[in-house]
Amino acid sequence: MQRKLLTGAAALAIVAGAAYWLASTPANEPGISLGAANAQESDEAVDTSGIVEMTMGAEDAPVTVVEYASFTCPHCANFHTGPGKKLKAEYIDNGDVKFVYRDVFFDRFGLWASMIARCDGGDRFFGIADMLYKQQKDWIGSGDPVEIANNLRKIGKTAGLDDDQVEQCLQDNDKAKALVAWFQQHAEEDEINATPTLIINGEKHSNMSYADLKEIVEAELAQE
Q1: Contact indicator for 195, 176 with CB cutoff of 8 Å
Q2: Is the pLDDT at 15 greater than 90, yes or no?
Q3: SUPFAM superfamilies under this entry (predicted)?
Q4: Which segments within the chain are labelled E, that is strand?
Q5: What is the distance in angstroms between the CA of the first residue and the CA of the last residue of the chain?
Q6: With 74 labelled, which of 43, 63, 109, 209 sits at a CA distance of 20 to 30 A?
């Protein structure tokens, strides 16, 4: 089972329902404005050139696996703590697979999580991503925006970010809008309608077991 993705204006409207931006007091609720990312609100194109593709593995690996996932998607958490972990150990770490992670945003919480994971230039991205997926039920379980924001702050600090770094990353409004525009662009180009979705050497696949994933990767490797 996968979480269905709302694309276009519907997806933007869900996330844009938050307040304008991150309040300076940690006890207050963060909010996100997607004004510039929504063509209905602005005619200016959002600059996404600063968004870095998050990758693992050898650049010249014979197999490329692109995953579209959301930090608030339970099925994505299951993939990362199961098949994704095995894929890394067996194929990514030895140079057979290049892995590309692309964010999908269903809600403001997923966007906040991504901004924490990408903090400090994204050097800690996959380490923080592991924490976010392993602890998903804990940091998002309450559904309360204030508590969720503070839980994400704690995860960032546990990963080695200091208070100033965490707040600076969460308050980067331009980055928030660029991330959403970047997500929309790729999701539309690849016709993504659910998460997790895998694109393996250009072919799109829905969520799967590790046995099925391994079979596809092995078939691709056999063609090299």
Answers
A1: no
A2: no
A3: Thioredoxin-like
A4: 3-4, 54-56, 63-69, 97-103, 194-195, 197-200, 203-206
A5: 32
A6: 63
pLDDT at 7 over 70: no
User: Tokens 């869900």 correspond to what residue?
Assistant: 14
**Cβ proximity of 170 and 51 under 8 Å:** no
Could you give the CA distance from residue 94 to residue 26 in angstroms, rounded to a whole number? 42
pLDDT in tens, 120-134: 888 999 999 999 999
Could you tell me the pLDDT band of residue 27, with boundaries at 50, 70 and 90?
Answer: very low
Residue that the structure tokens 């925006």 belong to: 145
Domain of 165, in residue numbers:
3-23+32-222
Angle subtended by helix axes 8-16 and 173-189, to nearest 10: 160
* CATH at residue 158: 3.40.30.10
pLDDT of residue 28: 42
Question: What pLDDT digit, counting tens, does each position of 157-212 carry?
Answer: 999 999 999 999 998 888 988 999 999 999 999 999 899 999 999 999 999 999 99
Pairing of the two strands 63-69 and 97-103:
parallel
CA distances from 30 to 34, 44, 121 (A): 13, 25, 21
